[in-house]
Design goal:
Shape: globular
Number of strands: 16
Distance between the termini: 38 Å
Strand content: 5-15%
Structural class: alpha/beta
Number of helices: 22
Helix content: 25-40%
Protein backbone atom coordinates (compact mmCIF):
# COMPACT_ATOMS: atom_id res chain seq x y z
CA UNK A 1 0.00 0.00 0.00
CA UNK A 2 1.28 3.48 -0.86
CA UNK A 3 2.55 5.01 2.40
CA UNK A 4 0.83 8.36 1.83
CA UNK A 5 -2.54 6.77 1.06
CA UNK A 6 -2.19 4.53 4.12
CA UNK A 7 -1.30 7.51 6.33
CA UNK A 8 -4.22 9.60 5.10
CA UNK A 9 -6.56 6.66 5.71
CA UNK A 10 -5.28 6.25 9.27
CA UNK A 11 -5.70 9.97 9.93
CA UNK A 12 -9.30 9.86 8.68
CA UNK A 13 -10.06 6.82 10.87
CA UNK A 14 -8.59 8.54 13.93
CA UNK A 15 -10.31 11.85 13.21
CA UNK A 16 -13.65 10.11 12.67
CA UNK A 17 -13.52 7.65 15.57
CA UNK A 18 -16.13 9.32 17.75
CA UNK A 19 -18.67 10.28 15.07
CA UNK A 20 -18.23 6.95 13.28
CA UNK A 21 -18.97 5.07 16.50
CA UNK A 22 -22.12 7.12 17.01
CA UNK A 23 -23.27 6.33 13.46
CA UNK A 24 -22.57 2.60 13.66
CA UNK A 25 -24.32 2.37 17.02
CA UNK A 26 -27.42 3.99 15.52
CA UNK A 27 -27.35 1.56 12.60
CA UNK A 28 -26.93 -1.42 14.93
CA UNK A 29 -30.05 -0.40 16.83
CA UNK A 30 -32.02 -0.08 13.58
CA UNK A 31 -31.19 -3.60 12.36
CA UNK A 32 -33.89 -6.23 12.40
CA UNK A 33 -34.27 -9.90 11.53
CA UNK A 34 -36.54 -11.43 8.93
CA UNK A 35 -38.67 -8.94 7.03
CA UNK A 36 -39.00 -5.41 8.36
CA UNK A 37 -42.75 -5.25 7.76
CA UNK A 38 -43.32 -7.83 10.52
CA UNK A 39 -43.24 -4.89 12.92
CA UNK A 40 -46.35 -3.35 11.33
CA UNK A 41 -49.89 -3.75 12.53
CA UNK A 42 -52.50 -5.23 10.22
CA UNK A 43 -53.93 -1.82 9.31
CA UNK A 44 -50.45 -0.50 8.54
CA UNK A 45 -49.65 -3.45 6.31
CA UNK A 46 -53.02 -3.29 4.54
CA UNK A 47 -52.32 0.31 3.58
CA UNK A 48 -48.86 -0.62 2.30
CA UNK A 49 -50.08 -3.38 -0.01
CA UNK A 50 -53.50 -2.02 -1.01
CA UNK A 51 -52.62 -1.16 -4.66
CA UNK A 52 -50.63 -4.34 -5.34
CA UNK A 53 -51.60 -7.36 -7.41
CA UNK A 54 -53.04 -10.36 -5.52
CA UNK A 55 -49.89 -12.45 -5.91
CA UNK A 56 -47.84 -9.56 -4.56
CA UNK A 57 -50.20 -9.15 -1.60
CA UNK A 58 -49.90 -12.84 -0.85
CA UNK A 59 -46.12 -12.53 -0.87
CA UNK A 60 -46.10 -9.55 1.48
CA UNK A 61 -48.66 -11.02 3.84
CA UNK A 62 -46.67 -14.25 4.07
CA UNK A 63 -43.76 -12.48 5.82
CA UNK A 64 -41.27 -14.88 4.19
CA UNK A 65 -39.93 -12.93 1.22
CA UNK A 66 -38.14 -9.60 0.87
CA UNK A 67 -39.79 -6.42 -0.36
CA UNK A 68 -37.41 -4.03 -2.13
CA UNK A 69 -37.75 -0.26 -2.21
CA UNK A 70 -37.19 1.64 -5.44
CA UNK A 71 -36.18 5.25 -4.88
CA UNK A 72 -36.25 6.91 -8.27
CA UNK A 73 -35.11 10.26 -9.62
CA UNK A 74 -37.08 9.75 -12.82
CA UNK A 75 -38.37 12.63 -14.87
CA UNK A 76 -38.61 12.96 -18.64
CA UNK A 77 -36.95 16.38 -18.88
CA UNK A 78 -33.53 15.25 -17.69
CA UNK A 79 -32.01 13.11 -20.44
CA UNK A 80 -29.95 10.97 -18.07
CA UNK A 81 -33.04 10.08 -16.03
CA UNK A 82 -35.68 9.68 -18.72
CA UNK A 83 -34.78 5.97 -19.22
CA UNK A 84 -35.80 5.28 -15.62
CA UNK A 85 -39.46 5.33 -16.63
CA UNK A 86 -39.13 1.65 -17.61
CA UNK A 87 -37.05 0.47 -14.66
CA UNK A 88 -39.70 -0.11 -11.96
CA UNK A 89 -41.68 -2.48 -14.18
CA UNK A 90 -38.55 -4.41 -15.15
CA UNK A 91 -37.36 -4.61 -11.53
CA UNK A 92 -40.76 -5.73 -10.23
CA UNK A 93 -41.08 -8.39 -12.90
CA UNK A 94 -37.58 -9.70 -12.22
CA UNK A 95 -38.14 -9.89 -8.48
CA UNK A 96 -41.59 -11.44 -8.75
CA UNK A 97 -40.09 -14.25 -10.83
CA UNK A 98 -37.77 -14.86 -7.87
CA UNK A 99 -40.59 -14.81 -5.31
CA UNK A 100 -39.92 -11.29 -4.06
CA UNK A 101 -41.63 -7.93 -4.47
CA UNK A 102 -40.68 -4.31 -5.07
CA UNK A 103 -42.45 -0.99 -4.64
CA UNK A 104 -41.58 2.54 -5.70
CA UNK A 105 -40.95 3.96 -2.25
CA UNK A 106 -40.66 7.50 -3.49
CA UNK A 107 -39.56 9.87 -6.18
CA UNK A 108 -36.97 12.56 -5.55
CA UNK A 109 -36.38 15.75 -7.54
CA UNK A 110 -33.82 15.69 -10.32
CA UNK A 111 -32.95 19.07 -11.73
CA UNK A 112 -30.66 19.51 -14.71
CA UNK A 113 -27.79 21.94 -14.26
CA UNK A 114 -27.49 22.10 -18.02
CA UNK A 115 -30.99 23.61 -18.21
CA UNK A 116 -30.62 25.93 -15.21
CA UNK A 117 -27.02 27.06 -15.94
CA UNK A 118 -26.83 30.88 -15.60
CA UNK A 119 -30.54 30.95 -14.73
CA UNK A 120 -32.17 31.81 -11.37
CA UNK A 121 -33.15 28.18 -10.88
CA UNK A 122 -29.48 27.22 -10.59
CA UNK A 123 -29.52 28.78 -7.12
CA UNK A 124 -31.58 25.77 -5.95
CA UNK A 125 -29.18 23.23 -7.43
CA UNK A 126 -26.86 22.61 -4.48
CA UNK A 127 -29.78 22.75 -2.05
CA UNK A 128 -31.54 20.03 -4.02
CA UNK A 129 -28.93 17.51 -2.80
CA UNK A 130 -30.07 17.68 0.81
CA UNK A 131 -33.70 17.85 -0.33
CA UNK A 132 -33.11 14.58 -2.21
CA UNK A 133 -31.60 13.02 0.90
CA UNK A 134 -34.69 13.99 2.89
CA UNK A 135 -36.98 12.72 0.14
CA UNK A 136 -35.13 9.40 0.20
CA UNK A 137 -35.64 9.18 3.95
CA UNK A 138 -39.34 9.95 3.64
CA UNK A 139 -39.77 7.20 1.06
CA UNK A 140 -37.97 4.63 3.20
CA UNK A 141 -39.64 5.70 6.45
CA UNK A 142 -42.59 3.33 5.91
CA UNK A 143 -40.36 0.48 7.13
CA UNK A 144 -41.81 -2.15 4.82
CA UNK A 145 -38.57 -2.62 2.88
CA UNK A 146 -35.70 -5.09 3.24
CA UNK A 147 -33.37 -3.43 0.76
CA UNK A 148 -33.34 -0.53 -1.68
CA UNK A 149 -32.44 0.17 -5.28
CA UNK A 150 -31.49 3.78 -5.98
CA UNK A 151 -32.10 5.15 -9.48
CA UNK A 152 -30.05 8.28 -10.08
CA UNK A 153 -27.18 9.55 -12.22
CA UNK A 154 -26.52 13.28 -12.22
CA UNK A 155 -24.92 16.09 -10.26
CA UNK A 156 -26.54 16.51 -6.83
CA UNK A 157 -28.84 13.52 -7.25
CA UNK A 158 -26.43 10.66 -6.57
CA UNK A 159 -24.82 12.41 -3.56
CA UNK A 160 -28.29 13.13 -2.15
CA UNK A 161 -29.34 9.51 -2.64
CA UNK A 162 -26.16 8.30 -0.95
CA UNK A 163 -26.76 10.55 2.07
CA UNK A 164 -30.34 9.30 2.32
CA UNK A 165 -29.26 5.67 1.87
CA UNK A 166 -26.67 5.99 4.64
CA UNK A 167 -29.33 7.36 6.98
CA UNK A 168 -31.02 3.98 6.42
CA UNK A 169 -27.69 2.19 6.62
CA UNK A 170 -29.27 -0.95 8.08
CA UNK A 171 -30.83 -1.62 4.67
CA UNK A 172 -28.86 -3.21 1.84
CA UNK A 173 -28.51 -0.67 -0.95
CA UNK A 174 -27.50 -0.79 -4.59
CA UNK A 175 -27.31 1.95 -7.22
CA UNK A 176 -28.65 1.38 -10.72
CA UNK A 177 -27.34 3.57 -13.57
CA UNK A 178 -29.12 4.46 -16.79
CA UNK A 179 -26.05 4.82 -19.01
CA UNK A 180 -24.77 7.51 -21.37
CA UNK A 181 -26.22 8.60 -24.70
CA UNK A 182 -24.20 7.79 -27.79
CA UNK A 183 -21.51 10.28 -28.80
CA UNK A 184 -22.64 13.39 -30.66
CA UNK A 185 -20.46 16.16 -32.06
CA UNK A 186 -17.12 16.60 -30.36
CA UNK A 187 -16.92 18.57 -27.14
CA UNK A 188 -14.17 20.70 -28.67
CA UNK A 189 -16.47 21.75 -31.52
CA UNK A 190 -19.24 22.56 -29.07
CA UNK A 191 -16.91 24.67 -26.92
CA UNK A 192 -15.61 26.58 -29.95
CA UNK A 193 -19.11 27.50 -31.13
CA UNK A 194 -20.00 28.65 -27.62
CA UNK A 195 -17.02 31.01 -27.66
CA UNK A 196 -17.94 32.20 -31.14
CA UNK A 197 -21.45 32.95 -29.92
CA UNK A 198 -20.05 34.88 -26.94
CA UNK A 199 -18.25 37.11 -29.46
CA UNK A 200 -21.29 37.51 -31.69
CA UNK A 201 -19.75 35.49 -34.52
CA UNK A 202 -22.59 32.96 -34.82
CA UNK A 203 -26.34 33.24 -34.39
CA UNK A 204 -28.45 31.80 -31.62
CA UNK A 205 -30.02 29.41 -34.13
CA UNK A 206 -26.58 28.09 -35.09
CA UNK A 207 -25.62 27.65 -31.46
CA UNK A 208 -28.83 25.74 -30.72
CA UNK A 209 -28.17 23.36 -33.62
CA UNK A 210 -24.70 22.61 -32.28
CA UNK A 211 -25.90 22.17 -28.69
CA UNK A 212 -28.68 19.86 -29.89
CA UNK A 213 -26.18 17.78 -31.86
CA UNK A 214 -24.23 17.30 -28.63
CA UNK A 215 -27.18 16.65 -26.30
CA UNK A 216 -29.29 14.65 -28.70
CA UNK A 217 -31.09 11.77 -26.97
CA UNK A 218 -31.92 9.97 -23.76
CA UNK A 219 -28.94 9.10 -21.61
CA UNK A 220 -26.26 10.86 -19.65
CA UNK A 221 -24.30 13.68 -21.31
CA UNK A 222 -21.05 12.18 -22.53
CA UNK A 223 -18.49 14.70 -21.22
CA UNK A 224 -16.72 13.85 -17.96
CA UNK A 225 -18.54 16.21 -15.63
CA UNK A 226 -20.19 15.66 -12.27
CA UNK A 227 -22.76 13.14 -13.51
CA UNK A 228 -20.20 10.76 -14.94
CA UNK A 229 -17.86 11.39 -12.01
CA UNK A 230 -20.75 10.17 -9.83
CA UNK A 231 -20.84 6.93 -11.77
CA UNK A 232 -17.10 6.43 -11.38
CA UNK A 233 -17.36 7.06 -7.63
CA UNK A 234 -20.16 4.51 -7.17
CA UNK A 235 -17.96 1.83 -8.72
CA UNK A 236 -14.92 2.88 -6.68
CA UNK A 237 -17.11 2.58 -3.56
CA UNK A 238 -18.53 -0.80 -4.56
CA UNK A 239 -22.15 0.36 -4.78
CA UNK A 240 -22.80 -0.25 -8.49
CA UNK A 241 -22.26 -3.33 -10.64
CA UNK A 242 -18.70 -3.62 -12.02
CA UNK A 243 -17.94 -1.64 -15.17
CA UNK A 244 -21.65 -1.03 -15.67
CA UNK A 245 -21.75 2.75 -15.45
CA UNK A 246 -20.99 3.58 -19.07
CA UNK A 247 -22.99 0.94 -20.93
CA UNK A 248 -25.24 2.93 -23.27
CA UNK A 249 -28.85 3.48 -22.33
CA UNK A 250 -31.72 1.62 -24.00
CA UNK A 251 -29.62 -1.36 -25.09
CA UNK A 252 -30.11 -5.09 -24.36
CA UNK A 253 -26.98 -5.10 -22.18
CA UNK A 254 -28.26 -2.14 -20.20
CA UNK A 255 -31.57 -3.93 -19.57
CA UNK A 256 -29.79 -7.12 -18.53
CA UNK A 257 -27.66 -5.17 -16.05
CA UNK A 258 -30.76 -3.61 -14.51
CA UNK A 259 -32.35 -7.03 -14.03
CA UNK A 260 -29.10 -8.33 -12.53
CA UNK A 261 -29.03 -5.40 -10.09
CA UNK A 262 -32.46 -6.48 -8.86
CA UNK A 263 -31.24 -10.05 -8.40
CA UNK A 264 -28.12 -8.84 -6.59
CA UNK A 265 -30.01 -6.86 -3.97
CA UNK A 266 -31.90 -10.04 -3.01
CA UNK A 267 -28.59 -11.71 -2.18
CA UNK A 268 -27.86 -8.92 0.31
CA UNK A 269 -31.03 -9.02 2.45
CA UNK A 270 -31.21 -10.65 5.87
CA UNK A 271 -33.36 -13.43 4.42
CA UNK A 272 -30.55 -14.44 2.03
CA UNK A 273 -28.25 -15.58 4.81
CA UNK A 274 -25.60 -13.07 3.70
CA UNK A 275 -27.05 -9.89 5.17
CA UNK A 276 -25.03 -6.96 3.80
CA UNK A 277 -26.39 -3.52 4.77
CA UNK A 278 -24.94 -0.49 3.06
CA UNK A 279 -23.42 0.73 6.36
CA UNK A 280 -21.20 -2.36 6.35
CA UNK A 281 -20.05 -1.75 2.78
CA UNK A 282 -19.10 1.90 3.16
CA UNK A 283 -16.22 2.81 5.47
CA UNK A 284 -13.21 5.13 5.58
CA UNK A 285 -11.32 3.06 3.00
CA UNK A 286 -14.29 3.28 0.61
CA UNK A 287 -14.09 7.06 0.68
CA UNK A 288 -10.31 7.10 0.25
CA UNK A 289 -10.79 4.89 -2.82
CA UNK A 290 -13.39 7.35 -4.10
CA UNK A 291 -11.02 10.30 -3.73
CA UNK A 292 -8.19 8.41 -5.44
CA UNK A 293 -10.57 7.58 -8.31
CA UNK A 294 -11.57 11.24 -8.57
CA UNK A 295 -7.94 12.30 -8.87
CA UNK A 296 -6.89 9.53 -11.25
CA UNK A 297 -9.72 10.23 -13.69
CA UNK A 298 -9.67 14.06 -13.54
CA UNK A 299 -13.17 14.17 -12.10
CA UNK A 300 -15.45 17.01 -11.11
CA UNK A 301 -14.51 19.67 -8.55
CA UNK A 302 -18.09 19.46 -7.24
CA UNK A 303 -17.03 16.29 -5.46
CA UNK A 304 -14.71 18.19 -3.16
CA UNK A 305 -18.03 19.19 -1.59
CA UNK A 306 -20.21 16.14 -2.23
CA UNK A 307 -17.79 13.42 -1.09
CA UNK A 308 -17.37 15.28 2.20
CA UNK A 309 -21.15 15.50 2.66
CA UNK A 310 -21.62 11.82 1.83
CA UNK A 311 -18.87 10.77 4.23
CA UNK A 312 -20.33 12.79 7.08
CA UNK A 313 -23.61 10.94 6.62
CA UNK A 314 -21.65 7.82 7.64
CA UNK A 315 -19.87 9.57 10.52
CA UNK A 316 -16.64 9.95 8.53
CA UNK A 317 -14.86 13.33 8.64
CA UNK A 318 -12.95 14.36 5.52
CA UNK A 319 -11.34 17.68 4.64
CA UNK A 320 -9.64 19.31 1.67
CA UNK A 321 -6.18 18.47 3.00
CA UNK A 322 -7.07 14.80 2.48
CA UNK A 323 -7.96 15.51 -1.16
CA UNK A 324 -4.78 17.53 -1.71
CA UNK A 325 -2.46 14.97 -0.14
CA UNK A 326 -4.03 12.13 -2.11
CA UNK A 327 -3.85 14.14 -5.34
CA UNK A 328 -0.09 14.64 -4.94
CA UNK A 329 0.58 10.88 -5.09
CA UNK A 330 -2.15 9.88 -7.56
CA UNK A 331 -1.23 9.96 -11.25
CA UNK A 332 -3.73 11.27 -13.79
CA UNK A 333 -4.71 8.27 -15.91
CA UNK A 334 -7.53 9.62 -18.06
CA UNK A 335 -8.05 12.27 -20.71
CA UNK A 336 -11.73 12.99 -21.11
CA UNK A 337 -13.34 16.34 -21.83
CA UNK A 338 -12.69 18.93 -20.39
CA UNK A 339 -9.09 17.75 -19.98
CA UNK A 340 -9.08 15.91 -23.30
CA UNK A 341 -11.19 15.36 -26.40
CA UNK A 342 -12.50 11.86 -25.58
CA UNK A 343 -15.87 11.22 -23.95
CA UNK A 344 -17.12 8.47 -21.63
CA UNK A 345 -18.00 6.20 -24.55
CA UNK A 346 -14.37 6.31 -25.65
CA UNK A 347 -13.38 5.71 -22.02
CA UNK A 348 -15.59 2.60 -21.87
CA UNK A 349 -14.19 1.29 -25.15
CA UNK A 350 -10.64 1.74 -23.85
CA UNK A 351 -11.43 -0.58 -20.94
CA UNK A 352 -13.07 1.91 -18.61
CA UNK A 353 -13.19 1.31 -14.89
CA UNK A 354 -11.55 -2.12 -15.14
CA UNK A 355 -8.33 -0.55 -16.38
CA UNK A 356 -8.41 2.32 -13.90
CA UNK A 357 -9.03 0.05 -10.91
CA UNK A 358 -6.47 -2.52 -12.06
CA UNK A 359 -3.79 0.14 -12.51
CA UNK A 360 -4.51 1.74 -9.13
CA UNK A 361 -4.51 -1.61 -7.33
CA UNK A 362 -1.21 -2.65 -8.87
CA UNK A 363 0.33 0.64 -7.76
CA UNK A 364 -0.98 0.25 -4.21
CA UNK A 365 -2.99 3.45 -4.48
CA UNK A 366 -6.39 2.05 -3.49
CA UNK A 367 -7.52 -0.32 -0.76
CA UNK A 368 -8.45 -3.77 -1.96
CA UNK A 369 -9.71 -4.97 1.43
CA UNK A 370 -13.11 -3.31 1.10
CA UNK A 371 -16.59 -4.75 0.92
CA UNK A 372 -18.71 -4.31 -2.21
CA UNK A 373 -22.15 -5.34 -3.43
CA UNK A 374 -20.57 -8.22 -5.36
CA UNK A 375 -18.14 -9.49 -2.74
CA UNK A 376 -15.00 -8.69 -0.81
CA UNK A 377 -12.25 -6.85 -2.62
CA UNK A 378 -12.10 -3.98 -5.08
CA UNK A 379 -10.47 -6.40 -7.50
CA UNK A 380 -13.94 -7.86 -8.10
CA UNK A 381 -14.47 -4.71 -10.19
CA UNK A 382 -11.87 -5.70 -12.76
CA UNK A 383 -14.71 -7.19 -14.76
CA UNK A 384 -16.50 -6.55 -18.00
CA UNK A 385 -20.20 -7.28 -18.59
CA UNK A 386 -21.43 -8.73 -21.87
CA UNK A 387 -24.30 -10.76 -23.32
CA UNK A 388 -23.85 -14.31 -24.54
CA UNK A 389 -26.89 -16.04 -25.97
CA UNK A 390 -29.06 -13.45 -24.25
CA UNK A 391 -27.47 -14.16 -20.85
CA UNK A 392 -25.46 -11.64 -18.86
CA UNK A 393 -21.87 -12.61 -18.18
CA UNK A 394 -19.02 -10.93 -16.33
CA UNK A 395 -15.63 -11.85 -17.72
CA UNK A 396 -12.25 -10.62 -16.52
CA UNK A 397 -11.91 -6.99 -17.48
CA UNK A 398 -9.08 -5.28 -19.27
CA UNK A 399 -6.07 -4.48 -17.11
CA UNK A 400 -4.27 -2.40 -19.69
CA UNK A 401 -5.79 0.24 -21.90
CA UNK A 402 -7.06 -0.45 -25.38
CA UNK A 403 -6.50 3.23 -26.22
CA UNK A 404 -3.70 4.98 -24.34
CA UNK A 405 -4.79 8.34 -25.73
CA UNK A 406 -7.82 8.06 -23.43
CA UNK A 407 -6.70 5.84 -20.54
CA UNK A 408 -3.02 5.51 -19.73
CA UNK A 409 -1.13 3.63 -17.02
CA UNK A 410 0.53 4.42 -13.72
CA UNK A 411 3.85 3.77 -15.45
CA UNK A 412 3.13 6.38 -18.13
CA UNK A 413 0.43 8.74 -16.79
CA UNK A 414 -0.76 11.96 -18.37
CA UNK A 415 0.42 13.74 -15.23
CA UNK A 416 2.31 12.61 -12.14
CA UNK A 417 -0.36 14.19 -9.94
CA UNK A 418 -4.13 14.09 -9.87
CA UNK A 419 -6.50 16.56 -11.43
CA UNK A 420 -7.37 18.70 -8.37
CA UNK A 421 -5.42 20.87 -5.95
CA UNK A 422 -5.99 22.76 -2.73
CA UNK A 423 -5.12 26.47 -2.70
CA UNK A 424 -4.26 28.23 0.56
CA UNK A 425 -3.49 31.84 1.32
CA UNK A 426 -4.62 34.98 3.07
CA UNK A 427 -7.89 34.86 1.12
CA UNK A 428 -8.86 31.51 2.63
CA UNK A 429 -8.98 28.01 1.18
CA UNK A 430 -10.24 26.91 -2.21
CA UNK A 431 -9.86 24.15 -4.78
CA UNK A 432 -8.81 24.20 -8.40
CA UNK A 433 -9.09 21.73 -11.27
CA UNK A 434 -5.65 21.57 -12.84
CA UNK A 435 -6.02 18.63 -15.24
CA UNK A 436 -7.09 20.82 -18.19
CA UNK A 437 -4.61 23.66 -17.59
CA UNK A 438 -1.51 24.32 -19.67
CA UNK A 439 1.79 24.81 -17.79
CA UNK A 440 1.83 28.57 -18.49
CA UNK A 441 -1.56 28.93 -16.81
CA UNK A 442 -0.47 27.67 -13.40
CA UNK A 443 0.94 31.02 -12.25
CA UNK A 444 -0.80 34.36 -12.78
CA UNK A 445 -0.14 37.66 -11.05
CA UNK A 446 -2.52 40.40 -12.10
CA UNK A 447 -4.97 43.06 -11.00
CA UNK A 448 -8.28 42.01 -9.58
CA UNK A 449 -11.55 43.06 -11.16
CA UNK A 450 -14.36 42.61 -8.66
CA UNK A 451 -17.86 41.49 -9.66
CA UNK A 452 -20.80 40.96 -7.33
CA UNK A 453 -22.64 38.80 -9.87
CA UNK A 454 -21.92 36.68 -12.93
CA UNK A 455 -24.16 38.95 -15.00
CA UNK A 456 -21.90 41.95 -14.34
CA UNK A 457 -18.88 40.06 -15.69
CA UNK A 458 -20.81 39.12 -18.83
CA UNK A 459 -21.75 42.78 -19.31
CA UNK A 460 -18.15 43.94 -18.90
CA UNK A 461 -17.02 41.40 -21.50
CA UNK A 462 -19.64 42.50 -24.05
CA UNK A 463 -18.65 46.13 -23.55
CA UNK A 464 -14.97 45.33 -24.24
CA UNK A 465 -13.77 46.25 -20.74
CA UNK A 466 -11.82 43.04 -20.13
CA UNK A 467 -9.21 43.08 -22.90
CA UNK A 468 -6.23 42.71 -20.57
CA UNK A 469 -4.61 40.46 -17.98
CA UNK A 470 -6.78 40.24 -14.87
CA UNK A 471 -8.15 37.98 -12.16
CA UNK A 472 -11.93 38.08 -11.92
CA UNK A 473 -13.25 38.04 -8.37
CA UNK A 474 -16.87 36.87 -8.51
CA UNK A 475 -18.08 36.97 -4.92
CA UNK A 476 -21.30 36.58 -2.94
CA UNK A 477 -21.88 33.33 -4.82
CA UNK A 478 -21.51 31.06 -1.78
CA UNK A 479 -24.15 28.81 -0.18
CA UNK A 480 -25.34 31.43 2.31
CA UNK A 481 -25.44 34.23 -0.27
CA UNK A 482 -27.34 32.65 -3.14
CA UNK A 483 -27.03 28.88 -2.97
CA UNK A 484 -23.59 28.54 -4.59
CA UNK A 485 -24.66 28.31 -8.24
CA UNK A 486 -22.36 26.89 -10.88
CA UNK A 487 -20.76 29.70 -12.90
CA UNK A 488 -20.01 27.66 -16.01
CA UNK A 489 -21.63 30.34 -18.15
CA UNK A 490 -18.56 32.51 -17.51
CA UNK A 491 -16.23 30.05 -19.24
CA UNK A 492 -16.95 31.10 -22.88
CA UNK A 493 -16.08 34.80 -22.41
CA UNK A 494 -13.07 34.03 -20.22
CA UNK A 495 -11.99 31.37 -22.71
CA UNK A 496 -12.18 33.92 -25.52
CA UNK A 497 -9.92 36.30 -23.60
CA UNK A 498 -7.49 33.50 -22.79
CA UNK A 499 -7.34 32.47 -26.45
CA UNK A 500 -6.50 36.07 -27.35
CA UNK A 501 -3.35 35.75 -25.25
CA UNK A 502 -4.48 37.47 -22.07
CA UNK A 503 -3.66 35.91 -18.74
CA UNK A 504 -6.99 35.48 -17.00
CA UNK A 505 -8.26 33.56 -14.00
CA UNK A 506 -11.29 33.54 -11.73
CA UNK A 507 -11.64 33.25 -7.97
CA UNK A 508 -15.04 32.78 -6.43
CA UNK A 509 -16.98 31.38 -3.50
CA UNK A 510 -19.30 29.84 -6.07
CA UNK A 511 -18.89 26.59 -7.99
CA UNK A 512 -17.87 25.65 -11.50
CA UNK A 513 -19.43 22.97 -13.62
CA UNK A 514 -17.73 19.60 -13.68
CA UNK A 515 -17.06 20.36 -17.36
CA UNK A 516 -15.00 23.45 -16.53
CA UNK A 517 -11.24 23.57 -16.29
CA UNK A 518 -9.79 25.42 -19.27
CA UNK A 519 -9.51 28.72 -17.37
CA UNK A 520 -7.67 28.72 -14.01
CA UNK A 521 -10.46 28.78 -11.44
CA UNK A 522 -10.05 28.97 -7.67
CA UNK A 523 -13.50 27.98 -6.50
CA UNK A 524 -15.50 27.06 -3.38
CA UNK A 525 -13.67 29.76 -1.39
CA UNK A 526 -14.17 29.05 2.27
CA UNK A 527 -15.25 30.97 4.21
CA UNK A 528 -17.49 32.66 1.67
CA UNK A 529 -17.77 36.44 1.34
CA UNK A 530 -21.09 36.64 3.19
CA UNK A 531 -19.67 34.56 6.05
CA UNK A 532 -16.71 36.80 6.83
CA UNK A 533 -14.43 35.59 4.05
CA UNK A 534 -11.59 37.82 2.86
CA UNK A 535 -13.05 37.87 -0.65
CA UNK A 536 -15.34 40.59 0.70
CA UNK A 537 -12.36 42.92 1.26
CA UNK A 538 -10.84 42.75 -2.22
CA UNK A 539 -10.99 45.93 -4.30
CA UNK A 540 -10.66 46.28 -8.06
CA UNK A 541 -7.00 47.08 -8.78
CA UNK A 542 -5.59 44.94 -5.94
CA UNK A 543 -2.85 42.57 -7.06
CA UNK A 544 -3.49 38.87 -6.61
CA UNK A 545 -0.89 36.15 -7.03
CA UNK A 546 -2.37 32.88 -8.22
CA UNK A 547 0.12 29.96 -8.01
CA UNK A 548 -1.40 26.55 -8.66
CA UNK A 549 2.06 24.94 -8.62
CA UNK A 550 2.71 25.87 -5.00
CA UNK A 551 -0.95 25.67 -4.06
CA UNK A 552 -1.05 29.34 -3.03
CA UNK A 553 -3.37 32.22 -3.69
CA UNK A 554 -2.39 35.55 -2.14
CA UNK A 555 -3.88 39.02 -2.02
CA UNK A 556 -0.80 41.27 -2.20
CA UNK A 557 -2.16 44.00 0.04
CA UNK A 558 -0.61 45.03 3.36
CA UNK A 559 -2.29 43.58 6.44
CA UNK A 560 -2.81 47.02 7.95
CA UNK A 561 -4.64 48.16 4.82
CA UNK A 562 -6.87 45.06 4.85
CA UNK A 563 -7.68 45.53 8.53
CA UNK A 564 -8.85 49.08 7.86
CA UNK A 565 -11.20 48.15 5.02
CA UNK A 566 -14.91 48.15 5.79
CA UNK A 567 -16.98 45.41 4.18
CA UNK A 568 -20.00 46.70 2.32
CA UNK A 569 -22.37 43.83 1.59
CA UNK A 570 -24.25 44.38 -1.66
CA UNK A 571 -28.02 44.18 -1.91
CA UNK A 572 -28.75 40.47 -2.27
CA UNK A 573 -32.52 40.74 -2.04
CA UNK A 574 -32.97 39.76 -5.70
CA UNK A 575 -31.62 36.30 -4.81
CA UNK A 576 -34.22 35.79 -2.12
CA UNK A 577 -37.38 35.29 -4.16
CA UNK A 578 -38.63 34.01 -7.48
CA UNK A 579 -38.24 30.50 -8.92
CA UNK A 580 -38.94 29.07 -5.48
CA UNK A 581 -35.95 30.70 -3.84
CA UNK A 582 -38.13 32.13 -1.08
CA UNK A 583 -38.82 28.56 0.08
CA UNK A 584 -35.13 28.00 0.87
CA UNK A 585 -34.49 30.89 3.26
CA UNK A 586 -33.94 28.55 6.23
CA UNK A 587 -31.53 26.44 4.17
CA UNK A 588 -29.35 29.45 3.34
CA UNK A 589 -29.33 30.45 6.99
CA UNK A 590 -28.29 27.03 8.32
CA UNK A 591 -25.99 25.67 5.63
CA UNK A 592 -22.41 24.81 6.54
CA UNK A 593 -19.06 25.66 4.98
CA UNK A 594 -18.10 24.32 1.56
CA UNK A 595 -15.21 22.38 3.11
CA UNK A 596 -17.69 20.73 5.47
CA UNK A 597 -19.86 19.60 2.58
CA UNK A 598 -22.10 22.69 2.35
CA UNK A 599 -24.82 20.73 4.09
CA UNK A 600 -27.70 21.51 6.40
CA UNK A 601 -27.23 18.17 8.15
CA UNK A 602 -25.20 17.50 11.26
CA UNK A 603 -25.56 13.75 11.44
CA UNK A 604 -22.53 13.31 13.70
CA UNK A 605 -24.41 14.98 16.55
CA UNK A 606 -21.82 17.74 16.97
CA UNK A 607 -23.39 21.13 17.43
CA UNK A 608 -22.55 23.62 14.72
CA UNK A 609 -21.23 26.96 15.95
Amino acid sequence: MNETIQKVTEQIIERSAKSRAVYLNRISKAKGHGVNRNKLGCSNLAHAMAPMEENEKTSLAGMQSPNIAIVTAYNDMLSAHEPYKLYPTLIKRTLMDLGATAQVAGGVPAMCDGVTQSQPGMELSLFSRDNIAMGTAIGLSHNVYDGALYLGVCDKIVPGLVVGALAFGHLPGLFVPAGPMSSGISNAQKAKVRQDFAQGKVSEDSLLKVESASYHSSGTCTFYGTANSNQMLLEMMGLQLPNSSFVNTNTPLREALTAHAAKTILSMTDLSGTYKPIAEIIDEKSFVNAIVGLMATGGSTNHTIHIIAMARAAGIILNWDDFDTISKVTPLLCKMYPNGQADVNHFRDAGGMSVVISQLLDAGLVHNDVETIVGKGLDTYIAEPSLSGGNLMFKEGAKTSRDENVVSSTANPFSAEGGLKLLNGNLGRSVIKTSALKPEQFIIEAEAIVFESQESLQTAFKEGDLERDFIAVVRYQGPKANGMPELHGLMPPLGVLQDKGFKVAIITDGRMSGASGKVPSAIHFSPEALDGGMLAKIKTGDIIRFDAQKGEILLLVEQEELASRVIEVPDLSANRHGFGRELFVSVRQSIGLAEEGASIFDISGKERA
